[in-house]
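so my prof wants the structure for this chain in the tokens format not the other one, which i didnt know existed until like an hour ago. anyway here's the sequence
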Amino acid sequence: MNIANKLIHAGERLGSFLVHFAHGAMLTLGLLSIAALMASVIEPQALRALPLSPIAEARASLAPTLVVEAIDFEPDTNAPEALAEAPVAATSRVKLSESLTRVRAYVARRYRVSETALHKSLVRAQVSGAQLGLDPLLIVAVMAIESSFNPMAESTVGAQGLMQVIPRFHMEKIGPDATPESLFDPETNVRVGALVIKEGIRRYGSIQRGLQYYGGALKDPEARYAKKVLAMQARLSKIADDA
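here's what i got, hopefully its the right format
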């Protein structure tokens, strides 16, 4: 009888232990499930926040970068100073027009200048003319009158290059990288000179007055400077149209 009682009590204790064990196991599994769920949410966020290893950074730096080059743009011709940064590199993608090609050949013969040396300045006149709404032959005519197409010309008052631009009056048009030699670069000189012509026309209301402003001769009642430039423009126009 004592043995039977002992067996009964032992069985009760074992049953109680198994019940507690089962409850504990279920609780543990539940806690593990919750921990796994939280890890699945938190871990990706933590991974994204971790810094790249040196190797990963090196690989990232070697990845190709997409560069979009803007070629076409519409300038504000009412504010020509805004074109002081007009892209010089654009001229390398521009073909000289047939009319300006004829002008180039004429200028090379007339002024004894290499056609190769003239090419960039005439292309720049073509590009600046299109940007500013100017006849490129007007720009070329100013070159002829001012320097006879000598890119290294310098006057006694400091006017420089093909279009005899005085740097101290037009530094903002040259751009932030201006140097004392900037205006001896033909493309820079023509770009800045065209901006000055446009500025004069806008300020004084006509091509003639704008040219007088360019030549520093606004007080000349006979407008001799403007007439000289316009006569040269007419001559170049005849050459350009003579196919």
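also thought this was worth mentioning. The chain is about 60% helix and 0% strand.
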